Fold this sequence. Notes:
With 117 residues, chain A is mainly beta. Helices cover 0% and strands 56% of the residues of chain A.
Amino acid sequence: KQEVTQIPAALSVPEGENLVLNCSFTDSAIYNLQWFRQDPGKGLTSLLLIQSSQREQTSGRLNASLDKSSGRSTLYIAASQPGDSATYLCAVSLTLYSGAGSYQLTFGKGTKLSVIP
Amino acid sequence: DVKVTQSSRYLVKRTGEKVFLECVQDMDHENMFWYRQDPGLGLRLIYFSYDVKMKEKGDIPEGYSVSREKKERFSLILESASTNQTSMYLCASSPLGREGLTGELFFGEGSRLTVL
Lengths: 117, 116
């Protein structure tokens, strides 16, 4: 069974610092990996989607990388701002096809990021 | 932009009441999901639907049912609410990827349910 781990569970950094969030998974047979942001009491907002054939994706100050062989993805945030404070979750979608539509998505429990002004 | 709309942001119900949580997506996505999110437990899948009138149980379907009569709408039903169903409920949709796999996932704003 796929397991997704995000370490650390919480991270506090001063404003302006570059930082890396980690996501590791146990089964490398993934279809895609997605990074989300969640603000307190809200739903999840999709940040970046990396297909299994890709190595990285970029959006603004965010860069996500994927290394299937080592079972790792990182989310790099450049020049962090207080508005980046949120919980960041990763989710992996497996290539296992169940025959009835595959929903094999596994989420990590997230890293809570605090950017201190 | 993809929009997933959950009808109620906050609900307070009493034990034993029947509860309906509605979710509508506007991007013609095949897949729709209901999750619940609890501190320390993360997101857990309740039910999944990959087509109209089709549904599959997720990890924690007990005490819940779902309905998908139209492609854009996926409803979660608590037949008889209990206090342990107090939680944040999140609806999501995604297109079909290749070979029926799950494409990019989009979430609604969430429904915070309190059962007294």
